[in-house]
Amino acid sequence: MELLPQALIDGILLGGIYITIAIGFSLVYGVMHIIDFAVGEWIMLGAFLGLYLNKWTGLDPFLLLPLVFVVFGLIGYLLQPVIHRVISGRQGNPLLMGLVFTFGLALMFRGIALTGFGFYSHSIPSTFSDKSFFYEQGTFFMTVSGIRLAGLIYALVITVALHWLLKKTNFGLGVRALAQNRDAAALMGVNGKRTSSYVYGIYVGISAMTGVLIGSILSVSAQMGPDYTIVAFFVVVLAGMGHLAGVPWAAFLLGLVQSFFLIYLDPGLTMLAVFAILFTILLVSPRGLFAKGV
Amino acid sequence: MKAAPLLELKSVTKTFGGLTANNQVSFKVQPGEIVGLIGPNGAGKTTLFNVISGYYAPSHGQILFDGKDISGKPPYELAALGIGRTFQVVKPFAGLSVLENVLIASFLRYPKRAQAEKHAWSILETTGLADRAEVSAAGLTLAGRKRLEIAKALALEPSFLLLDEVVAGLNPTEVDLTIELILKLRDQGVTILIVEHIMRVIMQICDRLAVLNYGEKIAEGTPEEISSNPAVIKAYLGETAA
Amino acid sequence: MRSKIITWSILVVLVLGIVPLFVSDAFVLRILTEAIMWIGLAITFDVLAGYTGYLNFGHGAFFGIGAYTTAIMMVRANWPFTLALLAGARVTTICALAAGFPTLRLRGAYFAIATWALSLAIQQLALILTITGGPDGMRLPPFLNPLYFFYLMLGVVASTFFLLWFLLERAPFGLKLKAIREDELGAQSLGLNPTRLKIQAFVLSAVPTGILGGIYAYWITFIDPASTLSDLVSDQALVMVVFGGMGTLIGPVIGAVLIFSFKTIFWAYLSDFQLLYLIILGAVIALSVVFLPNGLWGTIRDRNSGRGGLKKKLTGPPPGIEAEKKDETNKSILTAELKSCTQKDGVK
Fold first, then answer.
1. Confidence tier at C346 by pLDDT (50, 70, 90)
2. Dihedral sign (CA C196, C197, C198, C201)
3. Which of C84, C248, A217, C346 lies closest to B176, judged by CA?
4. Which of A269, B76, B78, B107 could form a disulfide with B83 if both were Cys (CB 3.0 to 4.6 A apart)?
5. Helix axes C108-128, A225-239, angle to 10 degrees
6. Range picked from A96-105, A233-242, C194-203 for highest mean pLDDT
7. For residue C210, is pLDDT > 90?
């Protein structure tokens, strides 16, 4: 019982990071109908860029985020036309092909990273790393690590920024129109291809930045990708595919499940529990827990 | 109007969340009739089609087919009972040939491949698609795809056919051909419920009409009665100036 | 085309059947046995991926379930291999039904995710249970008769191939699955029950996979979660199917042979091949999707039969229609339509 506040706070802090993993992923699904199997690999590659930039420049990883965003945003922007070509093919099953394509990318990235960076785990030091807040009242106590708190703040900033971008700007209006109806959006003068490229760029950029944070908070390794791909999938399925508003709740829920398993139960069972939850949700409500209407 | 109706809707209501797409719709279709379902855009015609063909379960009310309650039964069970339908947005199985498209529907009545193929060929001839049997369904013109849509529904050997805008978008000659086909089907004993925007077609082929507006049935009667019904003129004909 | 394929297939099986008479080298036999196994894994993967349009990342899990069940029955219950293998098939069937009912209600991407999660969960389960030996895996009683395994593998894969060929290319089942792949909602109005068809396809794909897993376990004599239940089983099957040609039976066979030969050859020359192999697998998938969306076999077939690749003859049209076949202009379509509705003249 004494550990309850700790479990809660850890879960929420972890959930914050998961928001940023899933939000771009969900956005890309909503706009382009792509399930990106490479999401975890973008996180991994971003984390390594952060790691090396930090080694070379000695700058704090939080200061490096904009640069990582720009580099990967550009990669995503340039890659999108290829994906567009795959999913707009007339023959076969384009959506399935999109899935297969990003899966191929994921394997390739993982292979390249394992070859180039090896199997070792690293971490990216930050000034927040050794700060933490301790709180005690009666038998309750909890520790809030500075870096995790910074991670949550980063997640909130990203979420708010994306929300602003989508709801308050012309670009966001175009994106939302595109998600609603491609043909109608084209009639309204939205350049579908370019908008999709921007969206994909933003998503890859955010994922890479989140990778840097994960590298500071947890660790960086070439095999880390699939762990975070499953996180993105889980959160997005829970939230309802393409349903952005449900993402934070689903992310916090996953964070809590993980931290409770870590503290109270066997961490080795986490994957089984996650699967059991995923399975149940898909059975009960295939559209996700937080998606309302159609 | 003497025999038992083939299809009977008893105050069928369909809501999506807070939105009522169909409200307390009741009407009957007698065997051998062609009944037109008309109404302005967004009146709930396609939704009603989806409810009748089993894609949506009605929120309230009952649907009787041949005296049996079919409300909420899945589309494939209704197909087996003899209800065929076409879709407004035609989506043939694009990766398959025209013949294969019709063949798939033929399996319902002819589970053996050889018989199914024979049946499919006869359907293709009836619908005038036989010369394009081996062509990829994706390569058909709009008229061809609409034809294929009807052919697939016919391959089920339905006693009742739901046609959703099968002539919209066709040129006048193609329209006439489709009308001929529909009348021929009626002569073969198929009962038809048709949604259509082109009034010329509706007036020409329908025995009776039901008019939907904002999800509710506002009138029912012969084409002549409907075209002089003030409520209909106000809601529908007035708007589109037909 | 169709009967040709089956003649060639029978010929290939016969040739493979007499290979051991001329080749006694254990290494070659071993390579052949494994190649045949991969052909089996690829064609069964394609039942769902190519014919039905569902990516099953749990394919490897069914391979593992078959392997583990066979191993457990042999090691812990001392069952003879044949009985244990049958038990493996039975357990795979049950698992496929249990996993299929919920997951196959999901569309495309959801399904891929759910099956991937399933395979991870099965791997975790094998790691923590004691009956599976946890991370240490299980050792089976060795039976060192390469010929036995060669013929067993060949027999099972050949039977699977001909069964699938009959069900998917001859019987209505294959076309029905393709209808589900093309338009699941629309197919329902034609009397098809998608859930039922998909579960049948799922079981049809999983059971031979489980049997192959069981044979593999006895043949290799050692299984553990890291190798037998790794993602690589599904991943390689996916590459073989995509590269060879989805939605065909020959495509996956070609893909399996090429990818497996490639892997075997390079494995011999490069020591740290495993990582490079991952890169190559990924690149092959991504590049084939972009440049060979129909796979090798699909592309070859399309080249040979004009552009569409749909010139398959079924029974041939009745006489009289053949003559109009070439003419595809709008006018001829109209005359054909006119001809077909001659009786009525009531309409203007």
1. very low
2. positive
3. C346
4. B78
5. 130
6. C194-203
7. yes
Report the sign of the C-alpha dihedral through residues C104, C110, C112, C117, in that order: negative
Whether A290 is covered by a domain: the verdict is no
Average pLDDT over chain B, rounded to an integer: 89
pLDDT in tens, A119-169: 888 888 877 777 777 777 777 677 777 788 888 888 889 888 988 888 888
Kindly tell me if the per-residue pLDDT of B99 is higher than 90. yes
Please count the structural domains in chain A.
Answer: 1
What residues contact C186, with CB distance under 8 A and at least 6 apart?
B87, B91, B93, C179
Chains touching chain C at 3 or more Cβ pairs under 8 angstroms? A, B
Q: Does A95 contact C109 at a Cβ distance shorter than 8 Å?
A: yes
Distance from the Cα of B115 to chain A's closest Cα (Å) equals 29
Which two three-digit tokens encode residue C165? 């060929």
The answer as to whether C341 is a domain residue is no
* Full domain range(s) for residue A73: 4-284
Cβ–Cβ below 8 Å for C333 and B80: no
Quote the ipTM score.
0.89
Q: pLDDT confidence of B8, banded at 50, 70, 90?
A: very high
pTM: predicted TM-score of the whole model, two decimal places: 0.85
Q: Phi, psi (5° rounding) for residue B10?
A: -115, 105
The CA dihedral of C182, C184, C185, C189, to the nearest 10 degrees, is 90
Q: Is residue A293 part of a domain?
A: no
C277 lies in a domain?
Answer: yes
Task: Please tell me if residue A90 touches chain B, with a CB cutoff of 8 Å.
Answer: yes
Given a contact cutoff of 8 angstroms between Cβ atoms, the answer to whether C39 and C105 are in contact is no
User: pLDDT band at C326, cuts 50/70/90?
Assistant: very low
Mean pLDDT, chain C, rounded, equals 83
DSSP B192: E
**pLDDT tens-digit profile of C215-271?**
999 999 999 998 888 888 899 999 999 999 999 999 999 999 999 998 888 877 776
In this complex, do A292 and B138 lie within 8 Å of one another by their Cβ atoms?
no
**Which of the 8 DSSP states describes residue B97?**
B
Question: Residues C96, C202: contact at Cβ < 8 Å?
Answer: yes
Res B236: pLDDT: 64
* pLDDT at res. C237: 94
Instruction: Tell me if A282 and C246 make a contact (CB, 8 A cut-off).
Output: no
Total residues belonging to chain C:
348
User: Could you tell me if residue C258 is inside a domain?
Assistant: yes
Rounded to 5°, angle at Cα C150 from C145 and C151: 105
Amino acid of residue B3: A
Q: CA angle, B176 as apex, B173 and B179 as ends, to 5°?
A: 155
**Distance between CA C104 and CA C136 in Å, rounded?**
33
Contact between residue A259 and residue A251 where contact means Cβ atoms under 8 Å apart:
no
Average pLDDT of the segment spanning B235-242 = 54
A8: buried, middle or exposed (CB in 10 Å: 19+, 13-18, 0-12)? Answer: middle
- C267 by DSSP, 3-state: which? helix
- For chain B, say whether A183 makes contact (Cβ under 8 Å): no
Tell me which residues of chain C, numbers 212 to 271, contact chain B at a CB-CB cutoff of 8 Å.
Answer: 247
CA distance A192 to chain C (A): 20
- Domain-located, residue A113: yes
* Residue B213, amino acid: N
Which residues of C are less than 8 Å from B136 in CB distance? 308, 310
Helix (H, G, I), strand (E, B) or coil at B165: coil
B16 with A293: Cβ contact below 8 A = yes
* A95: chain C residues, CB-CB within 8 Å: 108-109
The total domain count for chain C is: 1
Residue C222 sits in which domain range?
Answer: 23-308
Q: How far apart are CA A28 and CA A175, in angstroms?
A: 10
pLDDT at C258: 94
Residues 6+ apart with CB under 8 A from B92: B98, B101, B137, B138, B140, B145, B148, B149, B152
